[in-house]
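DM from R.C. (forwarded with permission)

"hey, sorry to bug you on a friday — could you get me a structure for this? deadline for the figure draft is monday and I only need the backbone to look sensible"
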Amino acid sequence: MTQEEQEVAAGQDGPFAELLGIRPGESADGVGTAFMTVADKHRQRAGVVQGGILVALVDYAFFRACRSVLKEGEHAVTIELKLNFIAPARDGELTARSSIKSRGGRIIVGDMEIFGEEGQLIATGIGTYMTVYDRRVRENQG
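My reply, with the result:
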């Protein structure tokens, strides 16, 4: 079992998500979700979740949406992300959801949203990923 397969089996896609306390959710048919329970380590001095952490959460959901449509040997990397903060996140469970709106040759565009525990919209945005290929796979193919 590869390192990636071991992490997925353990409920994580990598150490960064684990560090922030981000948990994977759905990853199917162009939709991805991720969850995070707000802790003191996520808050800035004003008592709300620091914006960069919200960006990481929603980017992770978008990654999961992208991963559900990738072909063997493809990976996807963020090339652009815009997030509008609508309401503060203070505590409770946050849910990030992303859905792919367009998949071209190498470019994937998706919508992103974060919701609070009561279903309130925390943030909304759009992102762009670019597909890249694992050189090791390409080198072995030809």
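R.C.: lifesaver. Residues 51-67 form the longest helix (17 residues).
me: no worries. The domain at 3-141 is CATH 3.10.129.10 (Thiol Ester Dehydrase; Chain A).
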